[in-house]
Specification:
Blueprint: E1 3-7, H1 16-29, E2 34-38, H2 44-48, H3 60-65, H4 70-73, E3 75-76, E4 82-85, H5 94-99, H6 107-112, E5 121-125, H7 132-140, E6 143-149, H8 158-171, E7 177-184, H9 191-204, H10 217-221, H11 229-232, H12 237-252
Parallel strand pairs: 1-5, 1-6, 2-4, 2-5, 6-7
Antiparallel strand pairs: 3-4
Helix pairs in contact: 1-12
The structure holds adenosine-5'-diphosphate (ADP) and magnesium ion.
Length: 253
């Protein structure tokens, strides 16, 4: 049975999509069968693995709202072992349409049931909000990965995310765990980055991944080429650290 990991933080620009794409690709690279689910209407994970949104006829929207079988929305990527359920802008309507839908919080969980046996890991890239798409993702997940950007106010907003996680645990998914907090965009040249690491470690203790993701320009270039970092520049620091994270995630079980 595959492990389902939701990458969540309601703040935008903290590295959710970069982590979703590159963790997925690095897990695939070390031989795991991986399904990436793009749950953000912006569809950045979709284009990040080289799937052209113009070629997508059915996406996660059709799976969540119209009960289209997941097999029909899965696209292969150019990387071996890596498939994706893409998102297009049509997903933007889902947040509102879900409100009046039966079992609105558990639609993702039910939809991906059939894929659990086929993949070793299912990684869900959440949108930058705590709305129903994120709630669906947390309800479907075994564990959540929380990317935190190494900047001022890094912890701001996290209490809201944590209380959402607790609510999901209480009412929808009691076995949901926090797999880890991932520090991203670390800049070793500033004292600030080091202070943030200390602060986050003080708060989350052993829940913080040993792997810290530095700022790496190759990571920000890769999406415009539609390639995960391990394809775009396998020798970059960005590829090294996401490979290290993949091994840590596997080690966590
Ligand atoms: P989110 O999905 O949380 O909104 P993204 O993963 O899209 O965040 O990252 C926001 C921006 O920062 C993107 O332009 C991305 O390319 C860039 N970025 C993310 N992580 C890094 C990194 N480690 N080094 C350099 N740029 C990064
Ligand atoms: Mg994103």
């Amino acid at each position: 049975m595959g492990k389902i990991l939701a990458i969540a933080n309601q703040k935008g620009g903290v590295g959710k999509t970069t982590t979703s794409v590159n963790l997925s690709a690095c897990l695939a690279h070390i031989g795991k069968k991986v399904l990436l689910i793009d749950a953000d209407p912006q569809g950045n994970a979709t284009s990040g693995v080289g799937v052209n949104k113009g070629d997508v006829h059915q996406c996660i929207y059709d799976m969540l709202i119209d009960d289209v079988n997941i097999q029909e929305v899965i696209h292969h990527t150019k990387m071996e072992n890596l498939d994706i359920v893409p998102a297009t802008i049509s997903l933007a309507g889902a947040e509102i349409e879900l409100v009046s839908t039966i079992s609105r919080e558990v639609r993702m969980k039910h939809a991906i049931q059939d894929a659990k046996d086929i993949y070793d890991y299912i990684i869900i890239d959440c949108p930058p909000s705590l709305g129903l798409l994120t709630i669906n993702s947390l309800t479907a997940a075994d564990a959540v990965i929380i990317p935190v950007q190494c900047e001022y106010y890094a912890l701001e907003g996290l209490s809201q995310l944590l209380s959402t996680i607790r609510l999901v645990q209480k009412h929808l998914n009691e076995s949901l765990m926090i797999d880890g907090v991932l520090l991203t965009m670390f800049d070793a040249r500033t004292n600030l980055g080091i202070q943030v690491i200390e602060e986050v470690k003080k708060y989350f203790q052993d829940k913080v991944y040993g792997t810290i993701i530095p700022r790496n320009v190759r990571l920000s270039e890769a999406p415009s080429h539609g390639e995960p970092i391990i394809m775009y520049d396998a020798r970059s620091r960005g590829a090294e650290v996401y490979l290290e994270l993949a091994k840590e995630v596997v080690h966590n079980g």
